[in-house]
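note to self — DONT lose this again. spent like an hour looking for the file last time. sequence + predicted structure for the chain T wanted, 349 res
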Amino acid sequence: MDTIEQYLPREVRVGVIGVGLMGADHVARLASRIKGARVSVVTDYLREKAQELAATVPGCRVVDTAEELIAAEDVDAVLIASPGTFHKDQAIACIAARKPVLCEKPLAMNPEDAYAVVQAEAEAQKATGRRFVSVGFMRRFDAEYAELKDAIDSGELGQVSVINCKHRNATTHPGFVDSMMVYDSAVHEIDAIHYFLDEAITEVQAVLPLPGPRAAEGQHDPMLLLLRTSSGRIVTDELYVNTDSGYEVRTEVLGSAGIATIGMGITRVTTQMAGGTWGGTVPFDYRPRFAAAYDAEVQAWITAVLDGSNIALRSATAWDGYLAAATCEAAEQALTTPGFVPVTARPRP
């Protein structure tokens, strides 16, 4: 009798689409720190960049297109790290090829396209009994986030009424407009709220203070988002993306039995110094802060592919990617609309 174990790879041959900053980071991760996997094929719009990277990975080859990579016989699973505008079509192609895919956020650039991925996977699940899409919200695999999630789920904190989030970057590149503060920065807190509370965000309001001196012309930095969930909880998300100091994310949960805060320990060592001052070090960008989380996320994905489940326990799913897209759309509308803007979400297939 045939069993699923007969068809599971002993080693996952991963194809990586897009080898820019994040893609190259993932290739290095898979090549040196992840067990049970190797990078077999890469592709990028800039072929020379792909060739340079492939030359550093034994047995890795380069193809011209994402379609060729997804169809390749020496690719068991696909990691998408291309620009977000291509994610929808590439994720659906992976589903059609019945290949597990880890897609960096966003799943798609708008809720309609994200829902198309959800529907494609739902149809594939009817035929195969398996899901195929994981979305790269790596904070779910951060040790502090996981510990806070467990504290909420266990009831240790009692009834949770308010969550306060902070998201700070040292600087932004030219052209980083307000909507990008939503889709590139706040999206992580949006998914974290779904992860922590396991309930929908129903409406969003934007509060735009006096811009700081380093804000680009027309950019509202800092920015505050207020999010209300289906049970009536309120989440605040303070975004400040030109601090000139470094990368920090913090979350504080107000519960009836306790208040928990994560993100305070990312500065390595905080030192009392002469004259009553104190200080430490803050990473310049997100990669040092979440390096271990990225490793844990990719390792969990590879392990899930090896055992046939495809999607790791804490991983964000295609549905999570859709909810994030729907909430970001409402948040973008809130930038120019007074009061709360409702989040419009379609039923889950």
